[in-house]
Amino acid sequence: KLQFLYLIAILHQRMNSATALLLSAAAAASSPDCSGNGFYYADVGECSCFSCFEGPACDSFNATCAVDALGGNPLLFEEFWRAHRYPVQESLAYRVSYDFDVTAVHGRELRGGQASLMPALNRTISKLHRAVGNVADLEKKNLVIGAGCTQLIDAAIYACKKQRGLDRPMYVYAQAPYYSGYPSSSVLGMDGMRPNGLSFTQRTDLPPEDVIEFVTYPNNPTNTAREPVYGGRAACTVYDSVYLWPSLWPAFTLPKTKPTVQLFSLSKMSGHAGTRFGWGLTEDAEFAGMMAESIERQTIGLSVDAQLKAYSVFEYLNRDGAQEFNGWIQRHLVKRWGVIDSIFDAASQTRFTQLADRHGFYAWVRCERPEDAMDCSAVFKRAGVAVEAGTKFGSTPAEVRLEMVQSDVVFDIIAQRVRSLVGA
Concatenated DSSP letters for 119-184? Predict the structure, then answer.
């Protein structure tokens, strides 16, 4: 009788899953197209319009609006996922407990002992990194997960500081132009978690044992491959490798310096920024434990819903989806970089110089005229394009960062307005 009831339960579960897939397909077929200027979300029953588009159907364009080229919001990736639907099935009874029943996993898989870590994530993350080849000595690594790379940056600072004594004065260093999150993480931190005696610095002559160096590899905002200024002699060398994927850097190379910890995020790998899922890899088990301690104290681990979605993304890419995904993103970015090059490399213009390597999320542009160099971001703003000022990245007001991963519609508007600005 028990076996019969078990079979009935399995059959019921599969029927529900099949029904959910059919309903999902039907919803996709009947969803409004938002005039091609936004995405429709069935959960709220309305369109989410792209930058400068308005109205219930996103059919009204605000010509006076400064189109958003600011924050690295990867809506380009959403266009791929809408064309390649992969169901994420979840019951309201799924994983209601705080913790997973986990033990350390060794061998060819990553090691990870966070109580909030889904065991299957260990296997699928390990599988993807082995296939891509963007982590050296993968079999020696310990895995830590957190709410995006932002939380992991803070956790890495905490772990490095704690290993050397929470009361010991230390400095966080990153070579300019750097990701703007490093100064805010080290100086402001999370409530109650930031140890005393920590400050952000641009000095390169400090005792290395007092320095926590961040290296974005490849760099944000210049897309360049960098090595640590302190030459790997710092107390901790944290490699922020969120852009180290073949979709963004097809001919990537590995860092020459061994990292204390290497950080990744779903937002840059697959575009799922709103899922808030990131992971760190380190050979130092104690360091991994201290990072996990920081994360557990802040948020009692990471949402199981975020982990489930991340697991589904990894599974899709591991099941022969990576080649298609990488190729799709590469083709779109190559096309976009061709447009940017045609604008800034024009022989007739000397007003602007594009400085970034030709791949990845961002263009890095310098205003060459003295009157523009006082505030290059304002020059772009007056032309109807909102960009990040260079000062946000420890650089000068003569430089700006221009985002490359918006939706196709928004990127075309940006390109049109920047072309008019350069030709003015």
Answer: HHHHHHHHHHHHHHT-STTGGG-EEEEESHHHHHHHHHHHHHHHHH-TTS-EEEEEPSS--THHHH
